[in-house]
Structures are given as C-alpha cells and as structure tokens.
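re: the backbone from monday

yeah here it is again, tokenized this time
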C-alpha cells in the first residue's frame, strides 16, 4: 500500500502480474504473514477476488500466516489454508473444521524437531513446505526429499 497507494495502482499491478505469470505453474500467496500487516484483511479482500477473477488458469491462492490463515477463509477468496504455527494443534483443529487443503510451513530448525514437525503435520493432513531458516540445515532438506 506504500508503493501502490490507490486501488487503481494496485489493480494495474495485479493485471500486469497475472498477464506475466499466470501461464506458469504457480500458487498465489498474497502476504508472507498477514498478521504483521496493518489493514491486511481489507487489502486481501480487495486483491483476492480480483486475482481469482483475472487468473484464467484458476491457480490456488492463499496468504501466509504466523499461526493460521483460517480466519480469512470466510472472505471467500482463498482456495487453501496456510499455517506455520509451531503448535501442531492449530493444524489439527483446522483439519476438523474445514474441508479445504492445508499447507504447513515447517519452522523447526533443529533436525530432530524438524522431523517431528514434518511427521505431525503430514499426519494432520497438511502438505508440508519448508521455511528458509529450516532449509539451511542439510538434514532438514534431506528429510523433505525422502
């Protein structure tokens, strides 16, 4: 919102991004952690539906979250949930209360804790992805590739 303060500027940027990248095999993630951005919900309620309307290939779309993006699911623009909470109960509760796919960003950096988080998130029904900090450990990237 600092670089593109008006709705018309953001709409123009979004049209450019969709035209440029929608032919690729991608997933749209609006923010890295929506909890850290003031006014994130209204911003995403503005951008999410437009992105879904403009994308001719209907790519998956969500937002990153420090805990979970499930509170934003009722806004209707997300197609999957993201969570990166170190408390795996969050993913288990999301699994019981929603029917959309879930992605869990693994944040543990110590290899034993990482493998435990990978196992538990997979058993919760989440698709795992690795955070940058966790990927710096070779044992963690090895566990993801196994």
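seq for it, each position gets an aa:
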């Amino acid at each position: 919102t600092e670089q593109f303060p008006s709705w018309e500027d953001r709409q123009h940027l979004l049209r450019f991004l969709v035209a440029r990248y929608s032919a690729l095999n991608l997933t749209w993630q609006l923010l890295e952690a929506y909890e850290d951005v003031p006014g994130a919900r209204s911003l995403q309620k503005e951008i999410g539906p437009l992105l879904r309307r403009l994308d001719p290939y209907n790519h998956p779309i969500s937002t990153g979250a420090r805990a979970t993006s499930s509170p934003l699911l009722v806004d209707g623009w997300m197609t999957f949930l993201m969570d990166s909470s170190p408390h795996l109960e969050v993913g288990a509760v999301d699994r019981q209360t929603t029917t959309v796919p879930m992605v869990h960003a693994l944040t543990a950096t110590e290899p034993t804790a990482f493998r435990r988080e990978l196992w538990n998130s997979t058993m919760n029904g989440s698709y795992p992805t690795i955070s940058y900090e966790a990927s710096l450990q070779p044992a963690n990237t090895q566990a993801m590739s196994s």
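The mean pLDDT is 93. The CA atoms of residues 111 and 139 lie 6 Å apart.
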